[in-house]
Specification:
single chain, about 375 residues, alpha/beta, Aspartate Aminotransferase, domain 2, Aspartate Aminotransferase, domain 1, 3-stranded antiparallel beta sheet, 12 helices, 14 strands, about 15% strand, binds pyridoxal-5'-phosphate
């Protein structure tokens, strides 16, 4: 194989949608209205429906969606928020901006999602004010079990769905379980804009109303400021129109991602590599992550065969330079996984012969 296999190929993705995307962009260009308008309103309706909730509020990106979403749930300075340390620091960034305190929970070694036994212990001990659950790699966590832990204590749960657009558990979509939930539409996400974008979804009308103030200067109405800690975090009309054009294809893209992941999990056979199990609709194949006791050598082996891989994520939040010395947290599973995980190419436009080549190359290692 002469050309490289990229970890993601957005040129191919654009080609597959160029007609509807260009029509959407053209429509906005001609409209004379470019920020928070009709496209945004329609997208909010369509995406709320897709998520099985009442309200969707478009914002500028997925990190703002976490921050503003948590603020709308009254998470504030000194609030203690349980979250994982293996999800790329986005939640930690949001919590830092709020002045809230991350309470890191270890992860399950198999799913790499929040360890519910550990969460249960922290909640029982008291002093957890909210929980952020990240559906990492596209795997919707067991929200019913989480809510069984948090509800008796009256603790709100926030879902970070930036990697899980369209994942379902017993037909219920990611984002429909929590008090509020965030999405990112960064270009590489399962539903991606052509630039930054994000949204918060919720069933709660009051939370949605607070979010509409928080994303636009704190305005309760034009030029009347009633919400504190607000900002400008709006979704562009061009991005909203592009997202509307792409949304009808999302389920088919997710099925293709899941199909590729299933093929990897059934065809990769190597004593030193562990693959995730074959999942159902609760997984939308955002990232396909294997573990390996000698990741560096596997990664080099793949690179020499023209296969580009990545690591999501190499440095756990509590070990980042910004947080060193600020706590003495130990998260044994999170720390061990950070040294073993490797992400293989998994996206709808990946061709059969390409993942065939990837599987053969891995099995030959
Ligand atoms: C991408 C991502 C975010 C942040 O989204 P941005 O739009 O890049 O700010 C948050 N959480 C997770 C899990 C992500 O993968």
């Amino acid at each position: 194989m002469t050309s490289q296999i990229l970890i993601n190929d957005l040129r191919r993705h654009f080609e597959s949608t160029s007609a509807v995307v260009q029509e959407a962009v053209e429509r906005v260009l001609k409209s004379g209205w470019y920020v928070l308008g009709k496209e945004n309103e329609e997208f909010e309706k369509e995406f709320a429906q897709f998520c099985g909730v009442q309200h969707c509020v478009g914002v500028a990106n997925g990190t703002d969606a976490i921050e503003l979403g948590l603020r709308a749930l009254s998470v504030g300075k000194e609030s203690r928020v349980a979250t994982v340390a293996n999800a790329g620091y986005y939640t930690t960034t949001a919590l830092t901006l709020i002045g809230a305190i991350p309470v890191y929970v270890d992860v399950d070694p198999q799913t790499q999602l929040m360890d519910l036994t550990h969460l249960g212990r922290l909640v029982a001990r008291g002093g957890v004010d909210a929980v952020v659950v990240t559906h990492l790699f596209g795997l919707l966590h067991d929200m019913e079990s989480i809510l069984r832990i948090t509800q008796p204590a009256g603790i709100p749960v926030f879902e970070d769905c930036a990697q899980a657009h369209g994942a379902l558990r017993e037909k219920r979509p990611a984002g429909s379980f929590g008090a509020a939930s965030s999405f990112s539409f960064y270009p590489t996400k399962n539903l991606g804009a052509l630039g930054d974008g994000g949204a918060v979804v919720t069933q709660d009308t009051a939370v949605a109303a607070r979010l509409r103030e928080l994303r636009q200067y704190g305005w309760e109405s034009k030029y009347r400021v009633s919400a504190e800690n607000a900002r400008n975090s709006r979704l562009d009309e061009i991005q909203a129109a592009i997202l509307r054009a792409k949304l009808p294809f999302l389920d088919a893209w997710n099925r293709r991602r899941r199909e590729i992941a299933t093929l990897y999990s059934t065809a990769i056979k190597h004593p030193r590599i562990s693959c995730p199990p074959v999942y159902g609709e609760e997984y939308v194949g955002h990232l396909y992550v294997v573990t390996c006791d000698d990741r560096q050598s596997l990664q080099q082996h793949l690179a020499s065969a023209g296969i580009i891989t990545d690591i999501h994520y190499p440095v756990p939040d509590h070990m980042q330079p910004t947080r060193k010395g600020s706590n003495d947290v130990r998260l044994p599973v999170t720390e061990e996984l950070a040294d073993k995980i490797l992400t293989l190419p998994c996206y709808p436009e990946l061709r059969d012969e390409e993942f065939g080549h990837i599987i053969t190359t891995i099995n030959r290692w």
